Amino acid sequence: MRRLLPVLNSALRRLGRDVDPRRSASDVTILAPAEEQEVTPPAFLPGQLDKVMAVHPARFSRSSVLERATQRSVTHAPVIRYTFHDCVVHPAGFDVWSGSYRNRPMSSVAYPRDGIGRLPKANYCMSTNSLKWFGDWLMDSCTAAHLATADEALFMDIRRDWPHASQYAQAFGLEPEPIEGKMFRVARLCMHQDHGMGSMKRARLREMRQTLASRFAPGARTFPSRPVYLRRGLAGVSRPIVNEAELIEGLTRRGFDVFDLEGADLKDIQERFRTTELVVSLEGSHLNHLYFAMKPGASILALIPSDRFIVVQLGFARSVGMRFGFVVVDPVTGGYRVNLPDVLKTVDLLQR
Fold first, then answer.
1. For residues 317-348, b (16+ Cβ closer than 10 Å) or e, as one string?
2. Quick check: 151 and 121 in contact, CB under 8 A?
């Protein structure tokens, strides 16, 4: 009967039933309360926010996203541990009686046909966005995995088309339970609300940064502290910059180096950005590499498309003590066009 629980809960979901698994938790523990923090707004030129055409994700209102770009105080959500008993974990999420959690639709995965495995304790580390965006996997799943106890198995998907994901998992010493095509019955399963950037999460991020620094320090190449243009290449959803050659020429005249993410492994990234004080790059999940490599006090200038304006990277940068700025770029046929004078002026703001 347990094998059919995901099917039953999926049917209840389609009928409009509330299947939020948190209602079925046997224990709810607040590991860290909500926190207020005074913050410094990002660096940007006057008129940039007037260029915003649409925000991303679309479920957020334009006003709320623009407010995040100017606020001087933020509220960090609490860290909460939810404990469930007698759960079924599968490639699309996990289920308890009258409760289900999905990181993707059940229809998108092959239903496990083999026998059901059994585990006494496990930690479920996938958020609803961890399979959509690499940055959320790194900032949500990897950090949540560091909340697991030594006797808990880890459920954390590692996408094969994200070449750096397996490298990070190995570097952090994470060994997730293989889940593709399988199903497990878990006696006690923990899941965490851990999307906030409060002091508890910031402490874990410091530990994770130190782990990477220690792992890649022996024999590391050294680079000058010149600013860098990080070329996104084919990473993630295609968002080409049509005048990238002009942008690179203008930045190199200002003393920038160029780093191509495509073909670089985690060791290359760690070594190159350890001494870098300023990076300019298109907005995207690839920026999350920098929060685990650059030093506190360094700066990121993100080129954010006006038709998908998003400032989630601002919170990530603040969480590791980095400065953040942005330039809004315009959609054109074939991609986006960057206003080079705006970029150079914002670079000046960040270098003051």
1. bbbbebbbbbbbbebeeebbbbbbebbbebbe
2. yes
State the residue range of the domain holding 108.
Answer: 2-31+77-212
Q: Within this chain, do residues 152 and 177 fall inside the same structural domain, yes or no?
A: yes
What per-residue confidence (pLDDT) applies to 220?
64
Number of structural domains found in the chain: 2
User: 34 — alpha (psi -120 to 50), left (phi > 0) or beta?
Assistant: beta
Q: What's the token pair of residue 332?
A: 């054109």
SS3 assignment, position 89: strand
**Inside any domain, residue 67:** no
> Three-state SS for 205?
helix
Tokens of 311: 């400032």
Asked if 109 contacts 224 with a C-beta cutoff of 8 angstroms, the reply is no
Q: Give 135-192 pLDDT, tens digit per residue.
A: 999 999 999 999 999 999 999 999 999 989 999 999 999 999 998 888 999 999 999 9
The pLDDT of residue 26 is 93
pLDDT single digits (tens) 237-295: 678 999 999 999 999 999 999 999 988 999 999 999 998 999 999 999 999 999 999 99
Distances 268 to 203, 223, 229, 290 between C-alpha atoms, Å: 25, 11, 15, 12
Q: How far is CA 12 from CA 9, 168, 219, 310, in A?
A: 5, 37, 56, 34
